Amino acid sequence: MLDLKKLREGRENAGLTQEQAAAKSGLSSRQAWNNIERGRSDITIATLDRIAKMLGVKAKDLLK
Questions:
Q1: What is the DSSP code string of the chain?
Q2: Which residue among 22, 49, 59, 62 has the highest number of C-beta atoms inside a 10 angstrom radius?
């Protein structure tokens, strides 16, 4: 399960807005990022991997 707190903190620590994080992760929009960050949307392993790379962490570090 995705650790939403770690995801949000990772984005904030990187100094990124949701819109910037979405663009850097290959997501379609800020809303797509927002849905993930609030736990309203499931993500694929590929998306998790892209997000982790963008944040400079391993995918497993974003999981509970």
A1: -B-HHHHHHHHHHTT--HHHHHHHHT-S-HHHHHHHHTT-S---HHHHHHHHHHHTS-GGGGB-
A2: 22
Specify the pTM. Answer: 0.91
Q: Domain 4-56 carries which CATH code?
A: 1.10.260.40
* Tokens coding 21: 């994080």
Q: How many residues does the chain have?
A: 64
Report how far Cα 9 is from the mean position of its chain's Cα atoms. Answer: 10
Phi, psi of 10 (to 5 degrees): -60, -45
How far the first Cα of the chain sits from its last, in Å, is 6
